[in-house]
Amino acid sequence: MAGCSVEKNTGTTRFYQGMTSRYNIYFNGIESFKAGIERIENGYIDDFSGILKIFEYSDPSTQPMCAADMESAIAKASKVISLKSISAKPEVKGNEVPSAKDEEFMNRKEYNEWVDDSYLLIGKARFYKHEFCYDHEYYKAPSRFQWYMRLFRQDEKLVSLINNILGQNNIDVAFIDYNFYGQYISLFRKRKIPVIYGTHNAQAELLNQTPVKTLRARRSKLIQYLTNKLHETWYFRKANALLVVSENDKRYHQAFVRKEKIFVIPNFLIESAYAETSAKKENYILMTANFSAFQNSCGLEWFIREIWDKELWDRTELLVVGTHSTEAFNNIKGRYNTTHIKAVGQVVDLKYYISRALVSIVPLLHGSGSRLKCLESMALKTQLISTSKGAEGIDHNDSIIIADTPEEFKSAILKALNREVDLTAKAYQAFIGKYSLPPNKRIFSDIIHRLTGGGK
Questions:
Q1: How far apart are CA 416 and CA 155, in angstroms?
Q2: Which top CATH class is 152-264?
Q3: Boundaries of CATH 3.40.50.2000 in the chain?
Q4: Is the pLDDT of residue 204 over 90?
Q5: Of the residues 38, 218, 255, 309, which has the fewest C-beta atoms closer than 10 A?
Q6: pTM, whole model, 2 decimals?
């Protein structure tokens, strides 16, 4: 089988090396990994004299149970990486101009798909072996995993500040908003102060949707995902109440937090800041976002690649406004036709652009939670066109035009430009009824009333 050497990159080579990786070395490695997990499940005994573990593998006593199997899995996965990796570039035949798909294929760092799976297997096996502690020799060198694990440590200065505040004031309820602050819940709970923890998204799930291209990026994504998932599953249940922004996010968090603790308070706006203006509509389509977030930059690229065409750019222009909008546009414009598209960049007041746009678009394919960009268009009476994912979590009473295919999206834009449809008044009423301050203030007041002993 000299013709199937990893030093060559042909269809035959990729098939042979992939097949022998999957059904031989990697298969044996994953079987060892499964055997280690089974040993934990069958051998672990709950200690009812202390706090019970939600996940058996979190108990350090499980490490000896699975160590041999996990080490075997690591050895097998390492063998795939060392013997089966194909990094040589395939030969280019003919003089045809390569397509975007061809260029993506040629730019790959690895051509055996089971190599990156082997890296993940090593990471998971080390996780079950508890090789994420600072004093373990594998992690004595600075590492990204160490950096993420530091997020769970309590900062002494912040602890001192919190204790000073609690000692000098009568606190009825503590509110922790987002990020890695779950480790501070205990400071309040030991003083019998109820804690409300606010989430912005199903963060681990959102990270899991992030597209990655390289093995290094995939490993980094796995570490971030595990870190966020561990924070969510371990700390969120310790709060007295968990705030989520949509019913979908509520269902996600119910997997590890009791449902009676979870309350939906959607993203909302203070209506007085979006009072009706006399702004005159101008001939442009608008997309606003933080374009450093992958879901927004990917959505913009999808719109330009699949929807933006001569029929549209002869009728109007597209303005791309928001943080990193210029960088996102510059990354795209060399690959697609960007006639009559302008990146404005970050602006002081998005309301100026939203209120004057004929159409506001949210062409998202990924994400979670609910989007303020949708609510702002509803509040400023600008016709909104969105994918289902973009409008997810918003009870808009059919006032947002939903379009999930390029054909539907383009057709909806043309109808809006021709004034054949106008749902802005209906959208404004949906905003006032559910996404303005008064209705959400009542929900929040009810939660505080319940936690402080005022009844349900």
A1: 53
A2: alpha beta
A3: 152-264, 271-435
A4: no
A5: 255
A6: 0.63
